[in-house]
Design a protein that fits this description.
alpha/beta; Udp-n-acetylmuramoylalanyl-d-glutamate--2,6- Diaminopimelate Ligase, Chain: A, domain 1; UDP N-Acetylglucosamine Acyltransferase, domain 1; 10-stranded parallel β-sheet; 17% helix
Length: 349
């Protein structure tokens, strides 16, 4: 693709020869002739001065580079769009593989692609242009919208609903039973039937080996635009707002509600039956036992304001020295008090 064409597609301002062609995107240090690179982090500015790339995506205010430049207000976003333009995804042809097992009353759009060893249950629906890869199991009454991509070995249980343009990575399980048990008087546990719904709205992405549970009643819902990383556990009855980002190994306990644009770092744990307001952010390994107001930025366990946590964590490494200094002070005070008692002159009678 020529730089002129690329600049037009990305709405960038081109500085340089528009007839030059690029065929791939590469990092600033590895790029060579025919490559498009990008500068989104200022710490790579010096590396950019040595780049061999044909062109670079960079901010309007960034210093000049020794190659053609495509300037934009959002270089990292333009980089993502350039990757998509230069590496269009390959899509298997429409049709149903002969090894797939599909219930007679299931409905599969004529332009959907159903791969080998797929199982589709009774009354399930697969929308137009959706791709279902090898070994996927789709339960009865499940609904898959249009333009979805369901990767290998995914399990979509009975009655689950996926909107349009949903991507589910390998091995994810959507609609598994929630962890619900009632204790009997003798201490044993009676399973609570989990018969509620799971609804995944449009443009959601779900990472590999993530699990999203159904509740006993009501629904578990992920709203439009939310992105879920690998190995995330979303329990029964959880509601996740729009455009949330949940990093790997996040765990959310049952009946908790997350607002729009919530961002949880890796291994964050969220207790059940609480609410995180819109725009809440939590750094990696934070434990959240209580509800948080909109816009809160927290760290640590139990979660506290990030600025307070940073101040406290700066003291952690000094605690042994502080403990020793305190012990020394206590010893000296005791010695001074003892000396004062020994030198005290009793009053005359």
């Amino acid at each position: 693709m020529t730089l002129k064409e690329l600049a037009e597609r990305l709405s960038c301002r081109l500085e340089g020869d528009g007839d030059l062609e690029v065929s791939r995107v590469a990092g600033v240090e590895a790029a060579g002739p025919g490559d498009l690179t990008f500068l989104a982090n200022p710490k790579y500015t010096q590396a950019l001065l040595r780049t061999r790339a044909t062109a670079v995506l960079l901010a309007e205010s960034a210093p000049a580079a020794p190659c053609a430049m495509l300037r934009t207000s959002h270089p990292y976003l333009a980089f993502a769009e350039a990757l998509a333009l230069l590496n269009p995804p390959s899509r298997p042809p429409a049709g149903i593989d002969p090894t797939a097992v599909i219930a007679d009353d299931a409905h599969v759009a004529v332009d959907a692609s159903i791969g080998p060893l797929v199982s589709i249950g009774a009354r399930a629906t697969i929308g137009g242009r959706s791709v279902v890869h090898t070994g996927v199991v789709i339960g009865p009454d499940a609904t898959i919208g249009a333009d979805c991509v369901i990767h290998a070995r995914v399990s979509i249980r009975e009655g689950v609903t996926l909107g349009d343009r949903v991507v589910v990575q390998d091995g994810a399980v959507i609609g598994s039973d929630g962890f619900g048990f009632a204790q009997r008087p003798d201490g044993t546990h009676r399973k609570i039937p989990q018969i509620g719904a799971v609804v995944i709205e449009d443009d959601v992405e779900i990472g590999a080996n993530t699990t999203i549970d159904r509740p006993a009643v009501g629904e578990t819902r992920l709203k439009a635009g939310t992105k879920i990383d690998n190995l995330v556990q979303i329990a029964h009855g959880v509601h996740v707002g729009r455009d949330a980002l949940l990093a790997a190994q996040v765990g959310i306990a049952g009946s908790t509600s997350l607002g729009d644009r919530v961002v949880l770092g890796g291994q964050v744990g969220v207790a059940g039956h609480i609410t995180l307001g819109d725009g809440v952010r939590a750094t990696a390994q934070t434990g959240i036992p209580n509800s948080l107001d909109p816009g809160a930025f927290v760290s640590g366990y139990p979660a506290i304001d990030n600025r307070d946590w940073l101040k406290a964590s700066a003291v952690f490494r000094r605690l042994p020295d502080l403990k020793k200094a305190l012990a020394d002070l206590e010893r000296r005070v005791a010695e001074l008090e003892a000396t004062a008692r020994d030198t005290d002159v009793p009053p005359e009678h």
